[in-house]
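Morning!

This is the sequence you dropped in the shared folder:
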Amino acid sequence: MLRTLVETMRRSTRRALANARLTRRRQALATRGGLRRQRLAALGRADALADRVLDVVDAHPEGVDARDIGNELGIDWRSVTAVTSRLVASGAADQIDRNFYPNGKASRKC
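The structure's back. Tokens below.
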């Protein structure tokens, strides 16, 4: 009788642990899916932000710095720096000192 009681307890413990593992797996998959959706949305937003930053840079052929870009877009200038770096690296904009110019319009004034 004691042996059957112990075996019953072991079975129920194993079932409870298996259910807990299954629940954790489902939660992990849901979390990963949510993070994946957030990353994709952030990438889409980053591309839209790059377009907006490029529009501001194109509107200022005399040059504009990151703070002014951020002010015109209504966002913090620190979030603009990564986008402007990417634009300069891809050749979509030029940078001299701290100012950004439309591609081919940069000139150092002496």
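Headline: Helices lie at 2-59, 66-73, 78-90.

More detail when I'm at my desk.
O.
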